Amino acid sequence: MKIRNIHITPVAVPDPPLLNAAGLHAPYALRLIIEIVSADGISGWGEIPGGEAARAALETAAERLIGMDPWRLNAIDAALESLARPDARGATPWDQRTWVHVRSAIEVACYDLVGKSVGRPVVDLLGGAVRERVPFAAYLFFKHAGAGGELGFGRDEAASGWAAARQRAALDPAGIVAQAQAMIARYGFQSIKLKGGVFEPQAEVNAILALREAFGPEMPLRLDPNAIWRVDTAIAAGRQLEGVLEYYEDPVRGQENMAAVARALKIPLATNMCTTSFDDLPGSVAQQSEAIILSDHHFWGGFRASLDLARFCAAFGRGLSMHSNSHLGISLAAMAHLAAATPNLTYDCDTHYPWQDGHDLLATPLKFEAGALELPGAPGLGIDVNRDKLAQMHARYLDCGLTERDDETEMQKVEPGWRFQSTRW
Fold first, then answer.
1. Which of 22, 353, 394, 395 could share a disulfide with 407, CB 3.0–4.6 Å?
2. Residue 94, Cα to own-chain centre: how many angstroms?
3. Catalytically annotated residues
């Protein structure tokens, strides 16, 4: 089997004005869709966060991979390694490295392609399913007014509670509770995560306490301040949330600071920001900086690297969950296959998918039932891409004027002079 063509399509999907430590989501989230086509006409699909830097790197990689065998992933890795240039995660909540994204997009598409060629789902190529249903968490955000993208596209009308939790929720956490109730009613999620790092820490603590009161102690709750708090702030907030949080995600920046917070509190700490690569793992062990690592095949370099991370977590006593970014159905399917093949996935996975619901490019969108996804049974990732929708989303990308994610600039449109600070409180 040989790779005949590689098609790279940048797309834009409507995104609500969600708030985070780095600012405000733009009206559109950017994604890159990769299609690898074999000489016998089989297509494999991958998806990663968008942007022109990643697109340029993918195009460079595609030139090198034409004619290679998609089964021979070690050879493909070697070819990519020869092209890769040093890059860094950056201080933002999202991972800004380029080449781990490229590796992920290509590997996922190759797995999809070869799975289709032999009539087996990707999960079987990863060692087989240890679970048939993959549980996900409701992912709550404070947000500005407006629906994002083309205003009035229907999300707020379909689930009115998602319109809640605007800025006034800093004083009244009822908006966050309403958002959670609406999202859970629609998808059946059985755990809740709140994206913090937006308002004064006490306001976010109050929102978590309001969720606890509304849903009771049986509902697992998580808080993610995106590493924007000082150590003393994180400890003070955490002491109010002992016995309330399932885990406390990245309240502070860096392994040393995370370790200091971990020693002071009786809450498991999780990370997607201080331990994000294999180079970070020795420090994780030495510092004991977290109890849980949030994997992400987009940011760790694909399926195989993520399974290696899972083995590390098993060996060194770390819990394991899965991080999310604003994604479409290709990424969601890939996440589900990986999660199904990971024996020690100990917590429900994150997903932004409800915020993009109704704007996917799959012919048959994946559906949550009781907060979980059942693995598609078809070969490969088990999905079909609607090429008309793909073309429409590409046209939107060309029209929207965005080329990279920039939450700070978007925030300045509503709060002139606002600046991202790596530590704010």
1. 22
2. 9
3. 195, 323
